[in-house]
Amino acid sequence: MSAPTSTSEAPALSNQAGSTATLNQKANTRIISIDALRGFDMFWIMGGDQLVRSFQKIDDSAPTHALANQMEHCEWAGFHFYDLIFPLFVFLAGVSIVFSITRLIEHSGRVAAVKRIAFRSVILFLFGIFYMGGVSNGFKNIYLAGVLHRIAVAYFFAALLFCFFRPKALIAICIGLLVGYWALLTFVPVPGVGAASYDQGKNLAYYLDQHYLPGQKFEGTLLSTMPAVANCLLGIFAGLLLTNKTVDDQKKVYWLLGSGITSLVIGLIWSIQFPIIKLLWTSTYVLLACGYSAILLGLFYQIIEIWKFQKWAQPFIWLGMNAITIYLVANIVNFRRHGERFVGGNVKNFLGNYHDLALSVVVLILVFWVVHFLYRRKVFLRL
Questions:
Q1: Does the residue 382 lie in any domain?
Q2: Structural domain includes residue 147
Q3: CB under 8 Å to 316, separation ≥6 — which residues?
Q4: Taking Cα atoms as reference points, which of 372, 317, 323, 382 lies closest to residue 35?
């Protein structure tokens, strides 16, 4: 943790130079809509989901039940709103790569950029191990399949590809990763199972994790790195669009919205044969999630950068500029337990069915207070 001299120095891996307006503008110019969207994404992890779930306690009806259901991951195939949170972070990491790595190469050279990419990835991966319990249960039970782990690995490969390949080659690589992953899951027989399958526990990705992933086992972490990198590359394409001086801002929004809708359509059509499965990060899941991500980025860019409606987004900006920090802090500081100090006991009895709503509001206030405190003092986690 450090206190940089300007906010342009502040961003960590997930909010690094992806907030700079163009490749050649001053470093202290920010595309704050990217920070705001990242904060919007983090909002749901930090308590926004509990806030929505609390509505069902107040009024157990079909609409509140449907909303609460959207705050849960699909058990297997399908897509809920909460399934967007993780890939949106990976998408935004890709957007950031265009700004940060280009600037780093221009200032320090490609070798320095590669070293920084490796350093950031390793540190973020280690944060992921710490977040998931470290080695408290022994090295044999270490957890290597968490959120920060995946972001670190996807960032590492996507950033390296960005360093050495031109956009047209990156497009080909992205398509190759998505189609290649589909081909592996669709045509390669699963040892001990037989024909290729998308079923839980019977697919190729699951088999590889069970035999080759150290520590605690997961559904498809190793093989699904392929579409996760493609997820990050799709973010890079959005970042390239935002830095393109030949395209005016309004057209950038149209391109984001149009490409997002196109990605959704392709993903939904393809899902007829290749199911949308978050645990496997199927190619259709990536296309659907990145389609929504591009649309959200376009909307945030339109509202914040073009229409200049910015005050409403300020809390999200605080959160987005210290996303990794608050994510780690929440693993150490139980905000809900502290929230009970305000609305527990007799207050809880008085509130009745409104207790969960009140607790969620208190938790979010505490979270926003922490990130606002850090923001005002220009304290950011830097990698």
A1: no
A2: yes
A3: 35, 36, 37, 38, 39, 40, 43
A4: 317
Q: Which residue has the tokens 């990794």?
A: 324
Phi, psi (degrees; rounded to nearest 5) at 380? -135, 150
Which amino acid, residue 315? Answer: P
Residues 322 and 316: beta-carbon distance below 8 Å: no
Among residues 375, 369, 345, which one has the least CA distance to residue 358?
345
> 274 to each of 168, 214, 285, how far by Cα in Å?
26, 28, 9
Tokens of 202: 């019977």
**Which domain covers residue 29, as residue numbers?**
7-376
Residue 38: Cβ within 10 Å count: 29
Tokens for 380, please give them: 């950011």
Q: What is the pTM of this model?
A: 0.91
pLDDT tens sequence for the chain (383 residues):
333 333 333 333 333 333 333 333 433 457 999 999 999 999 999 999 999 999 999 999 999 999 999 999 999 999 999 999 999 999 999 999 999 999 999 999 999 999 999 999 999 999 999 999 888 877 888 988 889 999 999 999 999 999 999 999 999 999 999 999 999 999 999 999 999 999 999 999 999 999 999 988 888 899 999 999 999 999 999 999 999 999 999 999 999 999 999 999 999 999 999 999 999 999 999 999 999 999 999 999 999 999 999 999 999 999 999 999 999 999 999 999 999 999 999 999 999 999 999 999 999 999 999 999 999 999 988 77
Report CA-CA distances (Å) from 65 to 52, 80, 353. Answer: 10, 13, 15
Angstrom distance (rounded) from CA 232 to CA 284: 15
In a domain, 2, yes or no: no
Instruction: Say if 216 falls within a structural domain.
Output: yes
Per the structure, how many domains does the chain have?
1
User: CA gyration radius for the chain?
Assistant: 21
Terminal Cα distance for the chain, rounded:
9
